[in-house]
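Schema walk-through. Below, the input block comes first and the output block second. Nothing else is stored per chain. Lengths vary across the set, and this one has 226 residues.
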Amino acid sequence: MAQDLAKLQEILGHTFADRVLLEQALRHASTTSKRTHSNERLEFLGDRVLGLAVAEALYLEFPKEEEGPLARRYAGLTSRDTLTRVAEGIGLLDFAEKQSADKETRARSRATLAADAMEAVLGAFYLDAGFETARAFIREHWRALIAEDLRPPKDAKTALQEWAQARALGLPSYEVAGRDGPDHAPQFTVRVTVPGHGAGEGRGGSRRAAEQEAAQALLTTLENES
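--- output ---
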């Protein structure tokens, strides 16, 4: 394990003064009977560290952009998809999975595991060396993503809402149609409807993720019908 951590620290570009923080950042809740010993608390903290660093970067990078477009960029850059891309880019799960969830959970939720571990590592960065060190890592690994597409991204829920409002149909309606899986890795099924224009269904590791999938499914149907 010590050899693995040394290699990971080399990849991260930071040697932890408190190596226990990095070990905890890699520990999924399914591997310990005490959830406070898992990476969940660090994930909570890392989410806020990422948010501030990304918000600051966008504020400086796009000085003429209004709040709305900045918020859409922010949503894309702090999403689970982006966290997963960064985690996979540095091979984080090569280290995290060695002491992560059971085989069934890994197969179903690899992206969720990667995103959670990435956020937890950012939280560990912050506690071990302060915001500047965490921000330097985020700037390095998010820089290309910020510049990847200069058009503000629009998530599926926003796009569906704008589609419906443009036609005076009111807001799309979301409801949880089901929930299954273990407590540490639930799977939500969400159904979205737009009056007179059908419904879409999506699944995800959180209600928010499932809503995005449902919105995208309905948007795809609407685009195919037009």
